[in-house]
Amino acid sequence: MEKFLIITIIFVGLIPPAFGDVFIQNDQQYRGDDNSLHIVGEIQNNLEMPINQINVNITLLDEDNQVITTKETSSLVNIIMPGMKGPFDLVLTNSEAKKIKSYSLELDYKVSSPKNQSIDITESELSRDNYNNLMITGIVTNRGDITANTIAVIATLYDKEGNVAAVSKVHPEPDYLRAEDNAFFLVAIPDKIQTRGINDYTLIAESEEYAAVPEFPVGTLVLLVSTLSAYIGITKFSGRIITNLISATNLK
Q1: Which residues on neighbouring strands pair with residue 60, listed in sequence order?
Q2: Domain-by-domain residue ranges, the chain?
Q3: Regarding the domain delimited by 4-111, which CATH topology (the fold level of the hierarchy) does it fall under?
Q4: Which CATH class name applies to 119-249?
């Protein structure tokens, strides 16, 4: 598949631009179980400041590389901290996607002020339900001094080539956490075709108030993560984590 990548960068304030410091990677397109077309990928932030208002403009091309239309989607993570990633997922119905053969990507964002406080994902586990749907369950905890509102947990799953295979976002119930409170979350990824070859995945948790630079202490079935503020990223690598998870949870 032939793809073209175009990066458009919008800076605010007096921060000088740095070529390639924010870019799209690991993108691909796939057909879901319902025959809808997904274009997925992730935005890498290598700036020294967080970014927000992150939009991905996707130009859809036919077999002759002629423009069919342009669609817009947003990062599932509202604020991407320095050194971190945020996934995106554009979903097109079968009727919309009939003539699409390739695509090009354009990225817009703004530099934002850093946030303080902390929120942790203190437990996570990968398993499948009775219908063979892949799901990730865990606990998110507010380590900050004030209530965290509109908590969201975002999962990014990767195939063996390291490309984004699927993404999913969920709001725990309740979607707010008072200081030192915690909540259970369940992220479901029902697309069975895409989850067959999952090699590793990341989890990110954020709220309206919080954004953080994470640390990555790794355990077999449970991840304990300490952070500076509320954007949490947890990466599980196949050799050390997924094999053990599959053995322990009897995934097939």
Answers
A1: 69, 103
A2: 4-111, 119-249
A3: Immunoglobulin-like (2.60.40)
A4: mainly beta
Q: Which residues of 227-238 are buried (b: 16+ CB within 10 A; e: fewer)?
A: bbbbbbbbbbee
For the full predicted model, state whether its pTM sits above 0.85.
no
Q: Determine phi and psi for 187, rounding to 5 degrees.
A: -105, 115
Show the tokens assigned to 190: 């029902």
Let me know if the fold of 4-111 is the same as that of 119-249: yes
At residue 194, what are phi and psi to the nearest 5 degrees? -70, -25
Instruction: Give tens-digit pLDDT for 42-100.
Output: 999 999 899 999 999 999 999 999 999 999 999 999 999 888 899 999 999 888 888 89
Cα–Cα distance measured from residue 99 to residue 47, given in angstroms and rounded to the nearest whole number = 37
173 φ, ψ to 5°? -115, 120
Listed in sequence order, the residues at least 6 apart from 234 whose beta carbon sits closer than 8 Å to its beta carbon are 121, 124, 202, 203, 204, 214, 216, 223, 225
CB 43 within 8 A of CB 27: no
CA torsion through residues 113, 119, 121, 122, sign: positive
> Are 24 and 41 contacting, i.e. CB atoms less than 8 angstroms apart?
yes
